[in-house]
Amino acid sequence: MSLMNTDLHSSLKKYFGFSKFKGLQEGVIENILNNNDTFVIMPTGGGKSLCYQLPALMKEGTAIVVSPLIALMKNQVDAIRGISEQNGIAHVLNSSLTKTEVKQVKEDITNGVTKLLYVAPESLTKEENIEFLRGVQLSFVAVDEAHCISEWGHDFRPEYRNLKAIISRLGDDIPIIGLTATATPKVQEDIIKNLGMNDAKVFKASFNRPNLFYEVRPKTKNVDADIIRFVKQHQGKSGIVYCLSRKRVEELAQVLQVNGVSAVPYHAGFDAKTRSRYQDMFLMEEVDVVVATIAFGMGIDKPDVRFVIHHDIPKSIESYYQETGRAGRDGGEGHCLAYYSYKDVEKLEKFMSGKPVAEQEIGNALLQEIVAYAETSMSRRKFILHYFGEEFDAENGEGADMDDNTRNPKPKEEAKDEVVK
Ligand code: ADP
Ligand code: MG
After folding, report:
1. Which amino acids bring their CB within 6 angstroms of ligand 1?
2. What is the ipTM of this complex?
3. Phi-psi map region of 329: left, alpha, beta (phi>0 left; psi -120 to 50 alpha)
4. Dist. CA 22 → ligand 1 center (Å)
5. Using an 8 Å Cβ cutoff, are 398 and 385 in contact?
6. What is the spatial distance between Cα 266 and Cα 245, in angstroms, rounded to a whole number?
7. Which atom belonging to ligand 1 lies closest to the Cα atom of 48?
8. What UniProt keywords apply to this chain's record, in alphabetical order (predicted)?
9. Count of other CB atoms within 10 angstroms of residue 289
10. Residue 412 pLDDT
11. pLDDT tens digits for 96-137?
12. CA 155, CA 153: separation in Å to the nearest integer?
């Protein structure tokens, strides 16, 4: 083991208490310590934060971390402060700080105390912040959730487009680290182009989830009965049922309850108190099933979710991957079942028709891909991974027989006939 690696492992242990790196972390961190641009693509939960936190703690100067969500930043800052005696080791810079607080942040940065400075892109565009940051020693800039730069991603934020210009003003050759869990080639191209990272070393982890079983069933008028049967076959196990509309969420939750399934509804129309009550009931296993819109799931970490059902087809393969990704986090069984009818696709198209043309075009293109997924007769795992630019060996790859098409191959025509149009 090289001297550097020994160093890295002892720092990992010292700061985070871990004895091993996860996945590609070590290579990423070495690349950052060598002052190179770095592009990190890892699924959610892959351990991306540590990829920039550890080198930030080891390097001279302050690392700027751009992140879109204030709540996320606060969590991370609290976690980093927990590993140090010095409160100033990590700070958030945003418009909610008082003058005194801003003064303290600036003082800590100037004195070399602050290793990680979290900022929202809006704060980074402020001229007085740029002026200040130009004058201090910076180690690198990490752009977390870098897919926000792309209209092809699921969370486009126009302010992310200005980042490159601002970073260039902060100093010469400041290394840039881009991080995302979005694996689609289009989004990656956008990130590299927008951040000017053509020379970046790319670290891409596999997105294969071998313990998840993928299945698509035609959606008939008996879909509710079918779902009830499925849930009863998984009695006592935790599962999520996603529906497109709030109305459907409430109806289906009720239908399940009436049929003896312990279920709660969840959507953004409930007040915060009700939402957190239902969420807790699911997390504490007072109920087995949560019927929800996509408002449910962000940041939910329940390791033993055994099934994720989509009552309606999701709007893209990427959303489907993220939503089904909540199943089987513990490595155990995870059944991902989607109901599909072309009528639902038309509904989604109609949904989009009020939006700007460019947005509609992107939305429709993404929708056509999920339609192709639903209608395919090939390995669904291969289909998903191909979409993410990943080659999958459908015969011998990990999880190769874990989908309906591979288990029960059927002639294409027959499969098509079953689809309700
Ligand atoms: P991501 O941003 O990729 O979704 P996070 O950075 O939030 O993932 O990390 C996910 C989890 O993995 C966190 O609980 C983190 O503490 C844990 N983790 C990260 N690196 C390691 C490691 N080397 N060993 C053990 N756990 C780790
Ligand atoms: Mg993250």
Report:
1. 18, 20-22, 25, 42, 44-50
2. 0.99
3. alpha
4. 8
5. no
6. 11
7. 3
8. ATP-binding, DNA damage, DNA recombination, DNA repair, DNA-binding, Helicase, Hydrolase, Isomerase, Metal-binding, Nucleotide-binding, Zinc
9. 24
10. 58
11. 899 999 999 999 999 999 999 999 999 999 999 999 999 999
12. 6
